[in-house]
Design brief:
There is one protein chain. The protein is mainly alpha-helical. It contains seven helices and no strands.
Length: 149
């Protein structure tokens, strides 16, 4: 249990954590709340289950991971778990969707879809957080310090 909260007082982890959290808040809010042009919870889960053939429970976990995981990252609460969840979502996205489109993102609209480029960056950031923890100015650090006393 101690490992989940343990973190060093590093600004690099803070930067990675908040940046990844902000990006995934946007994506999670699209899927969970329907903000920023998204389909919302029902529409997203319906798309995942019907079009992508993802089981219902897994589709729900993806939506929850992106939305609540992003909030956890921004606050620095259970960041290792949030980063692990996001890494799993991205690995699944690479495997099921993006691998067939090559490496690059679809910058010029000439590919069938997005390549693995973005997902690979997210995987790297997530792995860094799993290893290092939340870093400076995180709830994990406050909890870890209280556990140590």
């Amino acid at each position: 249990m101690k490992f989940l909260f343990q973190t060093e007082d590093r600004i690099a982890s803070l930067i990675i954590r908040v940046t990844l959290g902000m990006v995934f808040f946007f994506h999670g809010a699209q899927k969970f709340l329907g903000w920023y042009g998204g389909f919302g919870f029902t529409g997203t889960v319906g798309f995942f289950t019907s079009q992508l053939q993802i089981p219902y429970l897994l589709a729900v976990l993806i939506v929850f991971t992106e939305f609540f995981g992003s909030l956890g990252l921004i606050a620095g609460l259970l960041s290792r778990i949030a980063a692990f969840g996001i890494a799993c979502v991205m690995a699944g996205g690479i495997w099921m969707i993006h691998w067939q489109n090559g490496f690059s993102m679809n910058w010029y609209g000439k590919q069938a879809g997005e390549g693995i480029e973005f997902s690979l960056l997210v995987l790297g950031m997530s792995l860094a957080l799993i290893i290092s923890g939340s870093g400076k100015w995180s709830l994990d650090r406050i909890i870890s310090n209280k556990m140590a006393k």
